[in-house]
Design brief:
Length: 552
């Protein structure tokens, strides 16, 4: 019963787990068929009605593939428009040295397509990309994908409740598709951000962004300068350091880094066997990872207003995390006090995306690696000039400088009811959406991995995507089982949701004074991250609140 299950969950993670998790775990364990996370018709619409309701999904990355799989199961016709020549999105585009996931794969995978054969607990890019390729074929959605085509705009016509989606094909043709619903699955980390440093274009060597890597680039024996020490830099640096002549890392601010004993480990044959054969073992293991990489950390993100240690942490539990991470980096760096000072963040743990140690501290102690924390003054043909006048020569300049995350859904132009422009509604960098998925006056338009759906403390965006797809399916079900043509979220529901999200963020680590991160816009509002526990978001997207919507 529920209490037994709660106790078992608590024992599984070695902490007290609240009753909130029982229903979610029960859904996983009971493996009910048909899957409650898919669309289960109450009154299955006539085939003609379904056929007259084509959906366009924009993007065949992790979230677009997920949406396609679920629409296919439901019998709803759909086309996926993908700008690349393959599926996988970020996992297709990013192949910089060391590229891989830092959320364990037995959690970072679709709940309906578990893989018991991951070679490592944290797979590298090729294996991840293959996983999404496999899912595409296993669920037979490849024929629905139009590759090498980019969506330029989507416009809604009130009278016919129809979206016109304009695309640009690889060979330069403009085409139009008619759809009853549009699902944006373009992600947030797909437009590289190059830093605004004077002289950037004058560099005479090879300059490239991590997300636009050149597979033919040979770094051996080269003098390399890397700007940026986030999740991408953390993976590139230690991977290339043994090959290059000199690696100079330009760090603007340090990130907190945690060790993970499984980070480089292969999954043993025994573990693979257990995952495949012991009933429910894979689900229980998944819950352990869910806890350790997501909800179990949620308390350490909350500000205790009575806590004051000069801004180094935000609560007692957060301070304990800080102590653990500080001890770890000190143990790694020994007596090197100047280096310890350089890599110890002044801000609380989790203020920026937490990183898993990819031999970062070992790399920093290599004779051919230097960590420079001075300000960059300009880029010149020979390399980078620092504020103190020193020129760091480079053959190759790597920008590990992140993405234009705040420009959500750009550069597409989306117009809803009465020509309402989505980007005008949002302004330059203030994207909002009900449950991160729906914007008022954009009927039958849904956003996957939209505003306030990201995770920075760990987490798993595939989990979020599956929750969003469930909400979208519930919306489409309302339309297709009834007489309505379209579903829209009410302004009040959207505004109340955004107000709650903002209020929660005001008491979370991301808004800590003096802290910079890519989760906030110019006005300081957290537009990128989810403030809730994953179990809360699971429940909010599962329990369809009819009163929040308008059917027309
Ligand atoms: P990021 O986290 O935004 O880091 C960008 C880095 O570049 C930061 O160190 C930043 O410094 C620095 N930077 C930016 N502009 C600069 C400038 N003008 N001068 C000097 N330094 C500058 O980007 P990312 O590492 O590509 O990661 C982005 C997100 O992608 C992550 O948060 C994560 O969600 C995802 N990701 C995940 C994985 C994974 O799962 N393994 C791998 C890669 C990326 P400041 O910190 O001072 O701004």
């Amino acid at each position: 019963d529920g209490e037994d299950l709660r106790e078992m969950l608590s024992i599984a993670v070695g902490e007290d787990v609240s009753a909130d998790y029982v229903s979610m775990m029960r859904e996983d364990l009971e493996a009910i068929q048909p899957d409650p996370r898919g669309l289960n018709w109450r009154h299955e619409p006539a085939p003609e009605k379904l056929a007259a309701f084509p959906v366009v999904i924009i993007g065949a990355g992790m979230s677009g593939v997920c949406a396609g799989i679920r629409l296919k199961e439901a019998g709803i016709p759909f086309t996926i428009i993908e700008k690349n020549s393959a599926v996988g999105g970020s996992w297709y585009e990013n192949f910089y040295p060391g590229c891989g996931v830092d959320t364990p794969n037995h959690f970072y995978s679709y709940s309906f397509f578990l893989n018991h054969d991951w070679s490592h607990f944290f797979a590298k890019r090729d294996e991840l990309w293959s996983y999404f390729e496999d899912a595409t074929d296993r669920y037979a959605i490849r024929d629905h994908i139009q590759f090498e085509t980019e969506v330029v705009s989507a416009d809604y016509d009130d009278a016919s409740a129809t979206w016109t989606v304009t695309t640009l094909t690889g060979d330069g043709r403009t085409e139009q598709l008619s759809a009853k619903s549009v699902i944006s699955a373009v992600g947030v980390l797909n437009r590289p951000k190059l830093p605004d440093i004077p002289g950037r274009d004058t560099f005479a060597g090879v300059a490239l962004h991590t997300a636009q890597w050149d597979a033919s680039l040979d770094l051996s024996g080269k003098k390399v300068v890397m700007i940026g020490t986030g999740a991408s830099g953390q993976q590139v640096g230690p991977t290339i350091a043994p090959d290059v002549a000199q690696l100079t890392i330009l760090q603007r601010s340090p990130h907190w880094v945690v060790p993970n004993p499984n980070y480089f480990a292969e999954v043993s044959d025994g573990m693979k066997w257990a995952l495949a054969h012991i009933p429910s073992f894979a689900r229980w293991y998944r819950f352990q990872l869910f806890w350790a990489f997501a909800d179990g950390l949620h308390a350490s993100l909350q500000v205790d207003p009575t806590w004051d240690d000069g801004g180094k942490s935000i609560s007692q539990i957060n301070a304990r995390h800080r102590l653990y991470m500080e001890r770890y980096l000190r143990a790694k760096l020994g007596e090197d006090t100047p280096l310890i000072e350089k890599v110890t963040p002044s801000y609380p743990p989790y203020g920026k995306r937490i990183l898993i140690d990819n031999n970062w501290f070992d790399m920093l102690q290599r004779p051919n690696v230097e960590l420079v924390t001075d300000q960059i003054a300009q880029i010149v043909p020979e390399g980078v000039v620092m504020a103190d006048g020193r020129t760091i020569e480079a053959d190759v300049l790597i920008y590990a400088t992140g993405f234009q995350a705040s420009k959500m859904l750009a550069p597409m132009k989306i117009t809803g009811k009465q020509g309402r422009d989505l980007h005008q509604f949002w302004g330059p960098d203030d994207a909002t959406a009900y449950l991160g998925t729906m914007v008022p006056e954009f009927p039958n338009f849904f956003i996957l991995m939209g505003p306030n759906t990201g995770l920075a403390h760990g987490g798993n965006v595939i989990f979020i995507t599956e929750c969003q797809v469930r909400l979208i399916l519930a919306c489409l079900q309302e339309v297709l089982e009834g007489d309505a043509k379209a579903i829209d979220v009410r302004h009040k529901a959207h505004d109340d949701y955004v107000a709650e999200v903002d209020a929660l963020h005001a008491n979370m680590v991301w808004t800590h004074k003096g802290l910079t991160n890519w989760y906030r816009n110019d006005a300081g509002r957290v537009f990128a991250l989810l403030p809730y526990r994953l179990v809360d978001y699971w429940k909010m997207t599962k329990d369809f609140r009819r009163e929040d919507f308008l059917l027309s």
